[in-house]
Amino acid sequence: MALAALAVFATGVLTASAHEDIESRVNGLLSRMTLEEKIGQLNLISHGPPLRWDDIQESKSGALLNFNNAQDVARAQGLARKSRLQIPLLFGLDILHGFRTQFPVPLGEAAAFNPRLSRLASEWAAREASYVGVNWTFAPMADLSRDSRWGRIVEGFGEDPHLGSVLTAARVEGFRAGGLATATKHFAGYGAPQGGRDYDTTYIPPAEMYDTYLPPFRAALDAGSVSFMAAFNALNGMPSAANPWLLTDVLRGQWGFDGFVTSDWASIHELLGHGIAADGAEAARKALLAGVDMDMMGQLYIKHLPTEVRAGRVPEAIVDEAVRRVLRTKFRIGLFDKPDVDPTRVDAIFPSPQSRQAAREVARETLVLLQNRGVLPVGAKTRSIAVIGPLADAPRDQIGPHGARG
């Protein structure tokens, strides 16, 4: 089963027998779980407060984020292996353009118009991250944007749905080839906020959604993305984290997606700010019923869902289906069958000469010359070049957003 699961994850080809075997294992495990253990699988917590290490062994979290070294990953996974049912953890991290070796940001990468390079960059990022035990990335960002005022435009591929679809698929394929599961984000319409203001509401007619903003996400699904992240913002008045049309009707009903959906950071809690939930219990209930399977950093599921289920306001069958999607994904990517990461591994072996060569190849094709006033090509007699400006000696800024361990 281990080799079959890993082959499925790498190729995206799931035979009927492999599917039946995974479903059998999922259902067998689910039948042994208490309600609290089920809801623990839906809880995604970050490194640092409010994480309590003892909670891992008590099955109060199914996934962790912002773990980026083998020592912490091995410690946490070891505690999960000591839990009653020994269900392994997902370790998620924003890896948008490299882990240790830094590649061009996605918007720059799009300027190359070359999906081979997108696959190459993503595969290297995945190799480096998976080497230290990270197994899930909150990428690619499939949001299209046609407003340069939006501050997150750098994380995506620009304005064209065809280019966005091709490069999104290439990135999913590259991440998977290197050993990382993907959470394609932000589903959906997040890149068209009013006035370019991040988190602001979007108003997009259904026809435009299907023609422009949804195709890159469908391309991610077809390329094998095992999870999606719901957006922060409201689409046509309904927050994505409580939007059954997006998460259930389109993603699962029309597209047949059977993986899981995670919220963005505390976005279920933000349903209170959107004004559609009076308290945390109502926010948790609305998000789960809409189709959000995992609560990132809101802690509303683990706090309120046991009471909501026992009070009859949330059917336990809905919880079971969300847990089934999470467990199915863990089996599908071979997580139950992989050995835990060696805690002595350090990512200082990267960047390697090979990864630097790959980054240089990608960077060369992403360069865009806007104007040349006789400066280029640089003459053979030139001995030095001055780099001037406030960012000339600011490596963190030069790396770009979400540089992981770069």
Automatic annotation (TrEMBL):
Gene3D superfamilies for the chain: Glycoside hydrolase family 3 C-terminal domain (3.40.50.1700), Glycoside hydrolase, family 3, N-terminal domain (3.20.20.300)
Alphabetical list of Pfam families matching this protein: Glyco_hydro_3
Sequence ranges assigned to domain Glycoside hydrolase family 3 N-terminal in this UniProt record: 34-328
Leader sequence segment: none
Catalysed reactions listed for this entry: Hydrolysis of terminal, non-reducing beta-D-glucosyl residues with release of beta-D-glucose
Molecular function GO terms recorded: beta-glucosidase activity
TM region positions: none
An individual GO BP term: glucan catabolic process
InterPro entries (UniProt xref): Cellulose_Degrad_GH3, GH, Glyco_hydro_3_C_sf, Glyco_hydro_3_N, Glyco_hydro_3_N_sf
Key words, A-Z: Glycosidase, Hydrolase, Signal
KW Hydrolase (keyword) present: yes
PANTHER family from the UniProt entry: LYSOSOMAL BETA GLUCOSIDASE, PERIPLASMIC BETA-GLUCOSIDASE-RELATED
Taxonomic source organism: Microvirga brassicacearum
Entry's EC annotation: 3.2.1.21
Sequence similarity: Belongs to the glycosyl hydrolase 3 family.
Enzyme class: hydrolase
Name of the protein described by the UniProt record: beta-glucosidase
